[in-house]
Amino acid sequence: MKAEVVIINQTRGMIAAHSEEGEYVILEILGGYEIDKGDIVSHNDFYSMGYEEYYNLSKQYSFSVYVQNVCGNIEQAKRQCFL
């Protein structure tokens, strides 16, 4: 499954990625990975919560995340990312 990074909160290390299915996956980035809006990330199951390894297809590297939530719209995603 693929998703496009649409929200970044650098202060909290949080991103929201909009999946091909239309949902927003809320991720806390673990480590100093450079992720930009528009990057395409992938994982085999966006509904797996907790610690996971995702892959940044745009920059060709794996990165560690803590999956916080999956939500249905951009406003919820902004709140989940503390924006």
Give a written overview of the molecule.
With 83 residues, the chain is mainly β. The protein is 8% helix and 51% strand. The protein is built from 1 helix and 6 strands, in the order ββββββα. The termini are far apart. The mean pLDDT is 96.
Could you describe the largest sheet, including whether it forms a barrel?
6 strands, antiparallel, barrel
Specify the helix fraction band.
under 10%
Mean pLDDT: 96
Radius of gyration, in angstroms, nearest whole number: 11 Å
- Approximate shape: globular
**Element order, helices and strands?**
EEEEEEH
Annotation, overall tally of beta strands? 6
Regions with pLDDT < 50 over 5+ consecutive residues? none
| Beta-strand residue fraction | over 45%
Please state how the strands of the largest beta sheet are arranged side by side.
Answer: 1-2-3-6-5-4
Distance between the termini: 26 Å
Task: Give the helix/strand class.
Answer: mainly beta
Number of helices: 1
Question: Topology, pairings included?
Answer:
Layout: E1 2-9, E2 14-19, E3 24-30, E4 40-42, E5 50-56, E6 61-71, H1 74-80
Antiparallel strand pairs: 1-2, 1-4, 2-3, 3-6, 4-5, 5-6
